[in-house]
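Q: Could you write out the predicted structure for this multi-component system? I'm mainly interested in how the pieces pack against one another.
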Amino acid sequence: MKTNDNSRRAFLAAGVLGGLAVAGCKSNPFTQDVSQDVKPSGKLVKLLSVDGEIIEVDEAFLKPVPDLPPVSNDIARVGIDGKKFVMVIDLSRCKSVKKCQSACDHMHHIHPGQNWIKVYPMQDAEHTAPYWQPTTCMHCDEPPCVKVCPVDATFKRKDGIVLIDSDRCVGCRFCMAACPYSTRVFNWEDPGLDKTIADQPYSCESSVPQKKGTVGKCDFCPDMVRQGELPHCVSACPNGVFFFGDMLEDAVTNGAETFRFSELIRDKAGYRLMEDLGTKPSVYYLPPVNRNFPYESIEQEGEDKSHH
Amino acid sequence: MEKVARQHIIEDLLPQKFGKQGRLWVASLIILCLIGLFAYIRQLSKGLVVTSMRDYVSWGIYISNFVFFVAISLVGSLITAVLRLSDVNWSTPLTRIAEIIAVSAITFAGLIIVVDMGRPDRFYNLFIHGRLQSPIVWDVIVITTYLIISCLLLYFPLLPDLKIMMEFKEKSNTFLLKIYRFMGNYWKNKPEQFRISEKAINILSITIIPVAFSIHTVTSWLFATTYRPGWDSTNFGAYFISGAFLVGAGGVVVAMYVFRTHYKLEKYIKDEHFDKMGKVLVMLALLYLYFNVNEFLVPAFKMKKPEKEHLIDLFTGEFAPIFWFAILTSMILPIIILLFKKGRKPKAAFVAGILVVIGSWFKRYIIVTPTLLHPFLPMRDVPANYRHYYPSWEEWAIAIGSLAGALLVITIFARIFPIIPIHETITETEEHENTHSL
Amino acid sequence: MKIHIHYRFLLILLMMVSYVVHAQDAEKNTLLLGLKYNNHNNQEQYLHAQVKSKINGKFQMIEGIKLKCYISDETVDANLIGQAITNGKGEATILIPASVQDVWKSSPSQTFIITSGKTIEYDASRSDLTITKAKIKIDTAEGRIINANILALVDSVWTPVKDADMFVGVKRLGGNLNVNETETYPIDSLGAVAAEFKLEAIPGDKNGNIVLIAGVYENDSYGTVTAEMSVPWGEKTVYVSNYDERSLFARRGKSPLWLELMAYSIVAGVWGVLIYLIIQIRKIIKLGVE
């Protein structure tokens, strides 16, 4: 009797955690979830409900997601099924605080001095307004970098993310020449990681650890998405500049605010960078109108002023 | 009479031992190669950080050196194939010079690409994971093919000469004889053998032309398939091919002069050859100049925003000295020298050839680097030394070492094999005399 | 000379010693521990801890801090909920395990205590959080109305809560979308809210299902309490990615047919010639051997 009861509860819990309401609903609860292709691990965890009952939940369905081992290279190359990731960057909110950059550098253990996220001071013409433009990898739908990779080391996934397999990259740097957004960086020397990090097996989804002689770039943090969390830059930005979401859900969020993607792009006249090149980026920009902050120039060492 | 002439030609053309000058030359080339090797070992242990390449200038003089090697290797197809097929007989003494330049240059082009790789230990990935969509894979395929065709084109005409050299044991040593025997012991001067060999050479001469065009067109596509200002050009294939023929022909003129003076080959590499090669060089320089005008005048007329910064930098900015130096030395000056009959005398032509080769090397540098310093988005959030590119000593050492290596291969080849085809020279002299006596 | 070296050595030693002493004297940074309680679907409960410290006048999230979490009383070992080490963002989550069932049942409100031990860089630190048990019920009514109410445990009776703001929305990746213009709803006298579902053509899964979510977020008394429910109010979404199509940016073996045709025919043509020539060399060799 007891075991029976337990298994019923476990089933219920698993269903609930996957997104099922307790009140009678017959539909499959897993289909909307990020981890929809997650198979039960068979390892049950005993938890306590608010009523003080003991429930058993399969580890794979736990939320918050426990530190599961990174997905295999084969799965990482295909991507998360039924998702199409998109980012919206609201230029009217950016004042170049660069928390996005430091969080990204920190979480991906990037070689000091190099950055996957760059914040550009932009001024399109002499009499036009200057503004800050953060760039991540554009995760183009027709990525020029992937076109030229000779060994499938950089690849486009089902969910729209472009990733790098640092265990396969031969370091020819053709992708860097091909990318018009200057988003790729190269590990010219050993990235100087702690031994505990350097000894981890490389995961395409977390892009850790970076390896000498290979290319690195923004990965849209699919490892975070698998855990139901937002990319590091999105959660780190104090001004809510970055919005991330699933195009197929028609929603983007910066953690605090969530908008319908189509409405946001329509109402604020969103656009993509260098549309004329035909790369079809997955990153959209909202123009710097009605700004939250005035533009203040920040000079950098060695910068040639004529460039902007 | 005929016998005497034959004996004479053979004695003149058999490979000669290195003299004092020769030994000094070989020694200095070996030293340069060793310095390059040392620099490469440093690069292997520390990574590409020993170069001055960084995230913006991600390709530097390794790649421009690669393009230079591929370019100069095209001469094999020009001299041996284009001229042979158009029944130009005077080029016969030059064919082997051209072919060995081609083989050695394309070999070092392949090596320098491995040097440029961040992970040379994963070179095999190109074969087990190769993607047909990538122009790099196309390049690997065509360069391998071209190397094999060039080797065959070097090998077939060598067969009768190997027999001659085996006959003249006293001019050789046991080691060299071993090589000759290994390579051509089966050649018995049978008419059937000649027939097959000649047919094979003809087939090769035809095959090498499209393959040669491919290697350099595909190399140009490594740049032209990107969006970058300065590379994004439909002109690039033809621009590269014409430049390649120019530098190749320049290289042959230089080699002609060196071999002629060093081995006393005035009877075989005549003033007439310099005169004719001089004319070919002028034609090629004019052709390359034409493509240069196309390449720069058209975008300069429009001055699109991304192109503008790049072009201004070339015409009057940071790269202007190298840009104009390259244009002047690879095209303008050689044209001026070689347009005069006196300029086509051996010594003057040699100077023009040297100018072409040096100018062309810098021209490749100008094609690769300035473009990378003008990305679409401004350079930002990088250390200050990422914003410029001045090649490091390791890069120079490796680049110079590879050039020395290519010269060393040519030198050693000339020590082992006759640099002017003996058998072909004999038959042509005989034919020449026959037609005269008729 | 030798003495000189000794002096220098001593000097360095002295400097090292003084540095170590100095470092020990220097004030250690204080860790600030933040603790949040989450109750998801009235079933799964977890604590979310955040560790930061003021270093050089700036708050920084601290990675690699060992945390111990207790319920009610940290001196009782049986009350240990779990241990965790903070991640790169200075965060850690700890699920409330079955082992503390008795303590949990003992009172309608509970106190959670989080502690960090003394380390080389930081002093020991402690923080606690007291919550009242609460749960949310979510249901739908005719005309696409979402009803939700929140109940708190008062003297072992689940009683409607009246002093909280509730959010009602559609669950999306990383965040929740409002179902109409209203951000959050004040709770009426019965502890309930009613929200009209006004989202038009919102994509659901391939069967048109969407997940509704109602919740009270970071409430002083109840923490974060949420409940979910799946309803077929969305558009059916079937996504066909171009992943398997042949293209220039597809993976190995998926190049466009025109490219494969061109490349392979050229390679076959040229290498056919080369193989033919190598056969010719064999012929010449045969003639020579005869």
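A: Regarding packing and overall arrangement: Chain C has three helices and 17 strands.
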